[in-house]
Amino acid sequence: MKKVVNNKAWFLVLPVVVLVAFSAIIPLMTVVNYSVQDIFDVNNAYFVGAEWYRDILQNPRLQDSLVRQFIFSFFVLLIEIPLGIAVALMMPTKGARASLCLILLAIPLLIPLNVVGTIWQVFGRTDIGLFGWTLTHLGMDYNYASNPIDAWFTVLLMDVWHWTSLVALLCYSGLRAIPDVYYQAASIDRASGWAIFRYIQLPKLQSVLVIGVLLRFMDSFMIYTEPFVLTGGGPGNSTTFLSQTLTQMAIGQFDVGPAAAFSLIYFLIVLLVSWLFFTTISHMDKAK
Amino acid sequence: MNWMAWTLPTALFFSFIAVILICMTVYEIKSPCVERKGFLPIETTRGDRLFIGLLASGYIHLVFVGLSEMSLFIALGISFVWLAIVLRWG
């Protein structure tokens, strides 16, 4: 059969190109334009070169929130990934109990972010919240509104509560995809539970885990709503993460120039990390 | 286009990026590239190397701005050399 060369189909992609240009590329270009100018109004804009970038990179407030952001994402991954794997391993494999577990796990994922923040804000209060009340009556000096360590603990616990399900569901689907013959071979070899996990389940989970790590890293790195509702970034600045600092700067103070420079630096960090994960995933696939 | 607050340097920057992309497209059509392994730890296509070169250039500029008071034209020069090296031997 003769192959027909017809490239007209490319025109069908055109609407997407126009949409993406309108919604992503042109706004991003505008941000770049804003980041090199001091803008007072439409007619009063002065070119300042890299001054905002220098301000941003040398601003201790932003450096602190960047460090906090990395620490937060690190702990999120450190807790949620092993916990998610453990939950997935302990879930029933079939029957009504499996369906029940899946539904229960999916519930936290369905709750809107600001509602999660509100739930935990009430839950953690020492006067009317069950969690705060219990801790206080167990003799612990807990107050997320005034103690930075308690605030961090609560924000992390909230994130773990909200998102571990995602990792667990991903791992669960990965585990179900392992053919039975692997387990049969393992039982013939009388492999221990640990050996089965280490040499069968974990390698088979690799690709879903990379996706899970990527999703959890990106989400936690861009977290805004939950800590904003729960602690408002406080006490002091102790739970103010990057996006909240950015919002304060861009909307609170209306410093468009520095906020634009900050956005682009933020964008470069996210781009680098996403690219690293993407490359890892695609090269793992090739290795297979 | 007034609302976009264009300046000459940003216009030059984006034109440069656009020209690179057009040139790469034409080059790709004329002689399609194959993945190969250079000094970078992974196999890369031409586009991968361009992306790596540009992203690294961004970081080179940020390091210059953040850690030194030196002129950014030095960073620009280093970036060009780096971009050429990555595209050729990466």
UniProtKB/TrEMBL annotation, chain A:
GO biological process entries: transmembrane transport
CDD domains with a match to the protein in the record: TM_PBP2
Is the Kinase keyword given for this protein? Answer: no
Provide the topology term for how it sits in the membrane. Multi-pass membrane protein
Location comes to: Cell membrane
Task: Give the primary localization class.
Answer: membrane
A Pfam family matched in the record = BPD_transp_1
Gene3D superfamilies linked to this entry: MetI-like
Locate the transmembrane regions by residue number.
Answer: 12-36, 70-90, 102-123, 151-175, 196-218, 259-278
Q: Matching PANTHER family, A to Z?
A: GLUCOSE IMPORT SYSTEM PERMEASE PROTEIN GLCT (PTHR43759:SF1), TREHALOSE TRANSPORT SYSTEM PERMEASE PROTEIN SUGA (PTHR43759)
Family, according to the entry, reads as follows:
Belongs to the binding-protein-dependent transport system permease family.
Its name, as the record gives it, is Carbohydrate ABC transporter membrane protein 1, CUT1 family
Organism (species): Neptunomonas antarctica
UniProtKB/TrEMBL annotation, chain B:
Q: What is the lineage of its organism?
A: Bacteria, Pseudomonadati, Pseudomonadota, Gammaproteobacteria, Oceanospirillales
User: What is the native source organism of this protein?
Assistant: Neptunomonas antarctica
Pfam families given in the database record: DUF2160 (PF09928)
Alphabetical list of InterPro entries matching this protein: DUF2160_TM
Q: Which domain of life is it from?
A: Bacteria
Name of the featured protein: Predicted small integral membrane protein
Which keywords belong to this entry? Membrane, Transmembrane, Transmembrane helix
Tell me where the transmembrane regions lie. Answer: 6-29, 50-67, 73-89
